[in-house]
Write a structure and sequence with these properties.
Layout: E1 3-7, E2 15-20, E3 24-30, H1 42-55, E4 58-62, H2 84-95, E5 102-106, H3 113-118, H4 122-130, E6 138-145, E7 154-160, H5 169-179, E8 188-191, E9 198-208, E10 213-223, E11 246-253, E12 261-267
Parallel strand pairs: 2-6, 3-4, 4-5, 7-8, 8-10
Antiparallel strand pairs: 1-2, 3-11, 6-7, 9-10, 11-12
């Protein structure tokens, strides 16, 4: 069982730390779900949440849980199969049993739709009902084993729904590799919004002054995917390239001297 502690950053950033005993730790991202949309893959999402429960995975909410369409948004509010209140009730019901393993909670552009028009912040309200610390636009998290001070393993995680969209996974991951390079000492970077799918390693070189040598550093870039299908959505209007019907979580190697992220594929069909 993970022990989760919150470190209040005051006017700056909060940090959530999870300490675990396991040799391997599952990390799941819940993002781009779009509850209420006709193309919402409900069975696949509920199966994914069941996986989180079964594996006792740590998880991060990374925006766009609801469709939350309004008459001024890109999507048609008349096409929603659930009201905004029903979307809230559904998400609360499915996330409440796993709330104690949440290590980051970010808003998304769909969460903010009602906030822009009526000052109803969907994401903040859901976090408040769940009793989860609301991060705003970005989260900083640490996952460590309890032998961290004795040479154990720890991972730093940055997550952001983001406001930039890209039409294929290659572009999305390339932008993360180049434009997100200013984040130092982050092991795993997570992006949402564009519904792309991919988890890849990215290497850089670091000069070790103390030992007078050059070391390689590996960072993992993650676009976990989306639970929204493409058929009968505004993606066909553009038209956007369809993303593969898969979704990724990650398995972290927590053993001493190890640092490895293994993508886990979940089929959506």
């Amino acid at each position: 069982m993970a022990k989760i502690t919150y470190h209040d950053g005051g006017d700056l950033w909060d940090v959530v730390k999870a300490s675990v005993d396991a040799e391997f730790q599952h990390l799941a991202i819940i993002q781009d779900v779009h509850v209420g949309h006709p193309a919402f893959r409900k069975k696949a999402f509920e199966k994914f949440v069941a996986y989180i429960t079964e594996k006792e995975a740590l998880w991060i909410y990374n925006g766009d849980g609801p469709e939350n369409a309004t008459r001024f948004s890109v999507g048609d509010s008349n096409e929603q199969l659930m009201t905004v209140n029903e979307q809230m009730k559904y998400l609360y019901g499915i996330l409440e049993p796993i709330k104690d393993r949440c290590i980051g909670y970010n808003t998304g552009n769909h969460d903010e739709r009602t906030k822009k028009q009526s000052d109803f912040d969907f994401s903040a309200e859901l976090a408040d009902r769940l009793g989860i610390r609301y991060s705003g636009y970005e989260s900083f998290s640490i996952i460590s084993n309890r032998d961290e001070r004795d040479g154990g393993t720890a991972y730093s995680v940055y997550s952001c729904h983001s406001g930039s969209g890209h039409k294929n996974a290659g572009l999305a991951l390339n932008v993360m590799e180049s434009n997100w390079s200013w984040m130092e000492n982050i092991d795993i970077k997570v992006k949402g919004h564009d519904h792309q799918v991919g988890v890849i390693p990215s290497a850089s070189l670091r000069l070790d002054f103390a030992n007078k040598c050059v070391r390689e550093r590996v960072v993992w870039l993650a676009c976990p995917g989306s639970f929204l299908g493409r058929a009968k959505t505004y993606a066909g209007k553009k038209p956007y390239k369809p993303a593969p019907p898969i979704y990724y979580s990650m398995l972290l190697d927590m053993r001493k001297g190890k640092k490895k992220v293994l993508p886990i594929q979940h089929d959506l069909d």
